[in-house]
Amino acid sequence: MIFLCDKCGICCNHINEIPELHSFDSGNGRCIHLLDNNLCEIYETRPDICNAKTMYEKIYCSEMSEDEYIKLNTEGCNELKRKYKRIE
Q1: Burial of 8 (0-12, 13-18, 19+ CB in 10 A)
Q2: pLDDT digits (tens, 9 = 90+) for 23-50
Q3: How far apart are CA 84 and CA 65, in angstroms?
Q4: Do residues 7 and 39 lie in contact, with contact meaning Cβ atoms separated by under 8 Å?
Q5: Contact 13, 34 (CB under 8 A)
Q6: Phi, psi (degrees; rounded to nearest 5) at 25
Q7: What does the radius of gyration of the chain's CA atoms come to, in whole angstroms?
Q8: How far apart are the first and last CA of the chain?
Q9: Residues near 4 by beta carbon (within 8 Å), at least 6 away in sequence
């Protein structure tokens, strides 16, 4: 199973809520590498925390199944969308 990102850009527009990404914050919560089309300028070399597969393999694979991890990521994504009024 793979985390299905719809490229809405909400997470990348609110990185101020992710302490590990402080150095990428442009000062208003938006990632300095987020392009106007909501794609990542450094996608191939993005930090591990921005890569669901890498984070699972490096940290979470010993704590939960991949399906559980993807479910949690999807729930977190949907929570951000609700918070920022992108879905009901």
Answers
A1: middle
A2: 999 999 999 999 999 999 999 999 999 9
A3: 29
A4: yes
A5: yes
A6: -75, 125
A7: 13
A8: 25
A9: 74
Tokens 């990521």: give the residue. Answer: 73
- Give the chain's length: 88
**What is the C-alpha separation between 88 and 30, in angstroms, rounded?**
23
Please give the single-letter amino acid code of residue 65.
S
CB 77 within 8 A of CB 9: no
Q: Which two tokens stand for residue 52?
A: 């669901």
Whole-structure pTM value: 0.82
What's the sign of the alpha-carbon dihedral 22, 60, 87, 43? positive
Query: Letter for the amino acid at 30?
Result: R
